[in-house]
Specification:
It is a single chain. Strand 3 and strand 4 form a beta hairpin. This protein has 13 helices and twelve strands. The chain has three domains: 104 residues, PAS domain (Beta-Lactamase, 2-Layer Sandwich), CATH 3.30.450; 73 residues; 151 residues, Heat Shock Protein 90 (2-Layer Sandwich). The protein has a five-stranded antiparallel beta sheet, with helices on both faces. The N terminus and C terminus are likely disordered. The protein is an alpha+beta fold.
Length: 406
């Protein structure tokens, strides 16, 4: 029972499933304790963790370090000692300080704990590479509270994620190789098919032109998929760099609309532009923002019924610029909205909906990551059966520069 309660408590605190409370059962007399009695609370915390839960803590797969309010180490299990590279024998009664532990370890826990104390959330999670990057350690630090607002210490969880990280790294490398091998022949294929469709190398009859047109569209679709895979790989590797510059948003949106006009015309969809006033203080990567807006507008056209309309607009607000893409299509269910920006997510449209098209499920996840790199946000409002609105909020030039330098 104690083991189950401990594991549930650790999980609840680290996942923020409960309000900040002490991780162990407390008697009612301790529930409304004043700051003057913190030393008494600290003593009780020490007794509870080191007596009642000692065996449990040693058998938890994660490394666990508990630090009290005066930076004394109260709990240090064997898995934590191993990951930290601490070779001494830990004795709770020795009153070892966090600084002393740090000086004997591979990880500067003292610096991480101090950073947590300075943050409003009281929570930090980082991935560290040790032993010349042969060991990958995930460190999660959380302030512990009694009765919501009285701090009683800090909990540090350390996890060896070397195996998972190496597997993910190998998959990413494999994906990159495959994507590049697919991408290389696509360019000459597109160019060759384009020349044939333009009848630069001979006249086509209607049937031939239709068949070549279908192949050309499929090559374009495959090209977009490969580009998405390459972007995902670059994002994971941190290789996408945002090159900001001042952008006049009007010509940007004009070019985005132009790129979708053919597809919209095929479905008799009208694309409206709504920019009430000129906007010149957008400070962003023009190519990446064009990629984002083309993706959103393409989705709006793709999932809208024939003979409908789509609107793309922008408005300047205090400190930010909002760009919206609105359709009057099928809408998105609440269950789908929750997974909308996840990789490979597929929406569940009813069977009766016309032209149900499925993409790779990568586009919106890439959109979200690019917006995050701009220190912006994206949200969606949708009513199932009545349409959707995607709203991008980006900081104006002054704020964007501040973030970039921070």
């Amino acid at each position: 029972m104690a083991t189950l309660q401990l594991l549930r408590s650790i999980n609840a605190v680290m996942e923020n499933e409960t309000s900040p409370t002490m991780m162990v059962p407390m008697e009612k007399s301790f529930e409304h304790m004043s700051c003057e009695r913190m030393s008494e609370t600290d003593s009780m915390l020490h007794r509870l963790w080191n007596n009642e839960y000692d065996t449990v803590i040693e058998n938890v797969s994660d490394g666990i370090v508990l630090v009290d309010l005066v930076d004394r180490i109260r709990v240090l299990n064997q898995n934590a000692s191993k990951l930290l590279g601490f070779h001494g024998a830990f004795d709770a009664s020795s009153e070892m300080t966090l600084g002393e532990l740090t000086r004997s370890s591979k990880i500067d826990l003292e610096e991480l704990v101090n950073r947590v104390k300075l943050t409003k959330k009281g929570h930090l999670k980082e991935t560290l590479f040790l032993n010349k990057r042969t060991v990958v350690c995930e460190v999660e630090i959380k302030m512990l509270y009694l009765d919501r607002n009285i701090p009683i210490g800090t909990m540090c969880l350390l996890r060896d994620v070397s195996k998972q990280w190496n597997e993910a790294h190998e998959k990413a490398e494999f994906l990159s190789i495959v994507a590049h091998e697919l991408f290389n022949p696509l360019t000459p294929m597109k160019e060759g098919l384009g020349l044939i469709l333009e009848e630069s190398i001979g006249v086509l009859n209607p049937v031939q032109k239709q068949c070549i047109g279908v192949v050309y569209e499929e090559v374009n679709r495959l090209s977009r998929l490969v580009n998405d895979l390459l972007d995902i790989n670059r994002l994971d590797a941190g290789k996408i760099r945002i090159q900001r510059s001042a952008i006049d948003i009007h010509p940007l949106i004009k070019s985005v609309i132009a790129s979708n006009e053919k597809r919209a015309a095929e479905k008799n969809i009208t694309i409206f532009e709504n920019i009430p006033h000129p906007i010149f203080d957008l400070y962003a990567d023009q190519d990446r923002m064009k990629q984002v807006l083309i993706n959103l507008l393409d989705n709006a056209v793709k999932y809208s019924p024939t003979s409908s309309s789509v609107e793309i607009g922008a408005i300047s607000k205090t400190g930010s610029i909002e760009i919206t893409v609105t359709d009057r299509g099928f809408g998105i269910s609440k269950s789908d909205i929750k997974k909308l920006f996840q990789r490979f997510a597929q929406l569940n449209y009813p069977e009766h909906i016309e032209n149900r098209e499925k993409g790779s499920g990568l586009g919106l996840s890439i959109v979200k990551e690019i917006i995050k790199l701009h220190h912006g946000k994206i949200k969606v409002q949708s009513e199932y059966g009545r349409g959707s609105r995607f709203t991008i909020t980006l900081p104006k030039r002054k704020k964007a520069r501040h973030h970039e330098n921070s």
